[in-house]
């Protein structure tokens, strides 16, 4: 057991991740910045995940392994990883991604130099199942690094993005002021918008994180509302929700409870009125309602939008940029 508090805590939630897990852990242990702990939260895996994790924990005291007695669902497991953390900074580390050796050092240095920042992320190299590059994307949203809380909030709720900022390095104390990840589709987007009210999002150049796009990722493998609800929280298995409406309510609640000056709060609320007219959001609200009755409609509508109107943010955009 460690006798000192680490500078960085990394939380790695995992369920049946044997295929890529060792690569992800090795990329953390290979960091040039050494003062960290890696907290692995196993959601009652039934494959070789437990053995892989215990082997790493036995070999390196910075690795701590926690196994849930039953599968809680993804979001409670992500939140548990955060709750176990002790470091000044916190990062969720996906079991199927990989970090370049200089990732933590670059992000910690940037956060130390920018004390008003809540989050730091590098550019992203999207990779396929075999680790081949799909394309590199710049991680910074225009306006997310603004000194104005309402400008940052507007960027997070109005501009299309793939929520991969969630895998950046957070200032733990500020992330802890948020509601973390409630159990609904889009909770990562709501959490990032709320955290943006607390501080700037900053970027270090260079693709220092490799994010793997494959068929078993949540965004690709679960299209029906009930399947998504069960993935987020096993207690909600089989329940149909209205996730877009829930996300929108979470935006309003974040603004209402944030300690903002009156003019900043008013500008943030104006962004939420504008939200209806951006990125097909009004249509998404309608899809949400129809999907509660006809679950297959959600996946059909998403495929239509991505194929004919706009590609999915992240890997889809990276592939398009690489072809050009």
Tell me about this structure:
The protein has 324 residues and is of the alpha/beta class. The chain has 14 helices and nine strands. It has helices at 21-29, 49-59, 74-83, 103-113, 149-158, 172-175, 187-196, 218-221, 225-232, 243-257, 262-274, 281-291, 296-309, 315-323; strands at residues 8-14, 36-42, 63-67, 89-92, 98-99, 117-127, 133-137, 169-171, 200-212. Strands 1, 2, 3, 4, 5, 6, 7, 8 and 9 form a nine-stranded mixed sheet that branches. Helix 1 (21-29) links the parallel strand 1 (8-14) and strand 2 (36-42). The longest helix is centred in the C-terminal third of the chain and has 15 residues, at 243-257. The model has no long low-confidence stretch (mean pLDDT 89).
* Order of H and E elements: EHEHEHEEHEEHEHHEHHHHHHH
Biggest beta-sheet profile: 9 strands, mixed
| Termini Cα gap | 51 Å
The DSSP helix count reads 14
Low-confidence runs (pLDDT<50, min 5 residues)? none
Count the strands?
9
Strand content: 15-25%
The assembly state of the depicted protein chains is single chain
Indicate the radius of gyration in whole angstroms: 19 Å
User: Which percent range fits the helix content?
Assistant: 40-55%
* SS content category: alpha/beta
State the shape: globular
What is the averaged pLDDT score?
A: 89
